[in-house]
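Protein modeling request. Please complete all fields; requests missing the sequence field cannot be processed.
Requester role: graduate student
Desired output: 3D structure, token encoding
Chains: 1
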Amino acid sequence: MDEQERTERQAPIPAQQTPPLLFFGNYDHSIDAKGRIIIPNAYRKALGDSFTLTVESDDIGIAIYPDEAFYAMVKELHALNALKPSVKRKRDHVAKFSYPGTQADNQGRVLLPAKLRQYALGDVRDVEISGALDHIRIVPSEVGQAEDDYYREHREQINEEIGSLGD
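Delivered output (167 residues):
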């Protein structure tokens, strides 16, 4: 698909403020030789026909947002003070690595754009696809395992910090 087609298919920014929480669970997958990945069946309906590929907010992986959730995130970025250089850099970074109007093929495969794939995943082929409430995360399998190990080792501290947020 060329850039003109992608631009024409971009959905307008929806008015809804809070995106639904739709994505749960995790799956092990591989990126094929052409740079495609299969979206698990459990995510396809909630993702919709058109969605956005972008970089994860922590730059450790790829995020797939339903268009509605992506535009809610963009709206939050636009609400920040654009005069601050860090805000401008973040906005530019998100725009550079975002691909709205992406669609899966009939088999549920999605082509991960080469620059986004290389930036966020490097040359890895084995990935973990997991729900992140309002979007789907794709991270190298090793990163997914390291995150699980970290949580397991620090869960008491994490739960204490969360418990103190209401104080």
